[in-house]
From TrEMBL:
Transmembrane segments: none
Stretches with biased composition (Basic and acidic residues): 16-33
Domain Acyl-CoA dehydrogenase/oxidase C-terminal stretches: 286-444
GO molecular function: acyl-CoA dehydrogenase activity; flavin adenine dinucleotide binding
Protein name in the entry: Acyl-CoA dehydrogenase
Database matches in Pfam families: Acyl-CoA_dh_1, Acyl-CoA_dh_M, Acyl-CoA_dh_N
Entry keywords, A to Z: FAD, Flavoprotein, Oxidoreductase
Family: Belongs to the acyl-CoA dehydrogenase family.
Organism, scientific name: Streptomyces pristinaespiralis (strain ATCC 25486 / DSM 40338 / CBS 914.69 / JCM 4507 / KCC S-0507 / NBRC 13074 / NRRL 2958 / 5647)
Amino acid sequence: MSAPTDKPLHQPHTPKISEREARQVAEAAREQDWRKPSFAKELFLGRFRLDLIHPHPVPTGEATRRGEEFLSKLRRFCDSEIDGARIEREARIPDEVINGLRELGALGMKIEPKYGGLGLTQVYYNKALALVGSANPAIGALLSAHQSIGVPQPLKQFGTEEQKQKFLPRLASTDISAFLLTEPDVGSDPARLATTAVPDGDHYVLDGVKLWTTNGVVADLLVVMARVPKSEGHKGGITAFVVEADSEGITVENRNSFMGLRGLENGVTRFHQVRVPAENRIGPEGAGLKIALTTLNTGRLSLPAMCVGAGKWCLKIAREWSAVREQWGKPVAKHEAVGAKISFIAATTFALEAVVDLASQMADEDRNDIRIEAALAKLYGSEMGCLMADELVQIRGGRGFETAESLAARGERAVPAEQLLRDLRINRIFEGSTEIMHLLIAREAVDAHLAVAGDIIDPDKPMAAKARAGANAAAFYARWLPKLVTGPGQLPRTYAEFHPAGHQDLSTHLRYVERSSRKLARSTFYAMSRWQGRMETKQGFLGRIVDIGAELFAMSAACVRADMLRASGDHGREAYQLADVFCRQARIRVEELFTRLWSNTDDLDRKVVDGVLSGTYSWLEEGVVDASGEGPWIADATPGPSVKENVHRPIR
């Protein structure tokens, strides 16, 4: 049998951008300065700054009162008004549920009271998302997309007072918003953005197509990223706009369907000659990408918050099921193979909640730069959330693979374990895929090195600049490297306050974090010395560096949270036990990652990939039928009027 026929390849309408140009656009959008301390940044530099997170920061009494009051109302609403099975069955959130959330004020959780919102802290906003997401993840996604990355957040950080007064009261009470950046051939590489916004008097005219517009099908207001051409009086560049979703020339051409989150109102939106008032531009021209990335610094915390909710539910179901299901004369939980999975779910849920709450409280206090912490929380939460859901399916066995509807039809409890696995899978892709998050975090982690030595490896820099960089680098490393040799992690009584009488010893784990932080920094320095300008191509290595940092951050957060709970008398002994188990599990993963930094198949993998792309192994594809349909790999995104029916469905 011959190899499967290749499907047609289509090159859509997008600008041709070199790799270097793409990197320059991404670099220009970064926040360049570190004006506040960052625990995670210091961790990657080999400096374990426990003082930045311990004692654990706590919300004010007023913030707690308002947050708990809203959570109580939201829980009653979830219990009485949200039918998750119906949403899964009908692949749509009922209008009455959305209207009920409006009446509760859920659309304005993060909007200040002076604009009609609830003004919840990041901590309680995330708790609310975890709660409502456990009722149905599509609802959590709707509220998160609306407030974490939709119109309210960029307006809060970059909007004018006039824009806030005009739009925020609507967004707090009635209007749903969506964030439109991705295009059919533009994902994590925004330099190739094809949607344009051409200045025309006191307006801009938008043309282009946006893909995967979460909330786009039902949205009333959009934040749209478009490229303004450079011209006289116009700096140009990627720019952010607030756009009315019912503007003439906007067509929602498709409501997309997915393997999970079946209630998600996600679509394809086409702009054809859409006139947007210049007063609706957020920030200056060319600042759109920076606005998007800055918005995501805290916006990313919403996703791991919902993973925390998923972990809590996994633990509840695993506990209840494994206590009643018997095999070979005893409950399956008593069998070591199953018990290890339950222990993993419990310990990981505790640690993930610790990570999210710590990062959220630091965001509320605004005394630390949490761009790396939030990115690590998103990365770690999305990966661990999927693992916990997968383990729950395995614990449930055949019932884990069976749908809740099928279970109910034959008289058993309708446990949607397989649905959770499908729903959580997108989190490893949403708001920056795991692979992109590795690169983003790695770039921030090595920022101090590039600041002093970047010019040395930059091929465009003149020799004089390289010489100055060499002198600066020599001075920096002369001070920095000796500090990586020894540290408090080698002293047996360091962090003794984390070993109170009658509790597990967490001080040993913090000493491990301190030692591993220095080892991580030494490994990074060695790699930069070895590969220099080629370091950015070593994505496997960089990914492992980041994963080690994520584990060390999670260990630190778990220990600090356990001690906070002990001090408050709130399940302190149990929290210490969970933190201890988590840290022991994490240390095994860290040791494996350290080994794989230098013992791996990265070079061999690249050779195999070259062979795959050149057709060397096409014979391996023989013996199957390609079940995919016909059509281009990437849909045509050529600007122009829509020829499809508008499926925009605002909720009234």
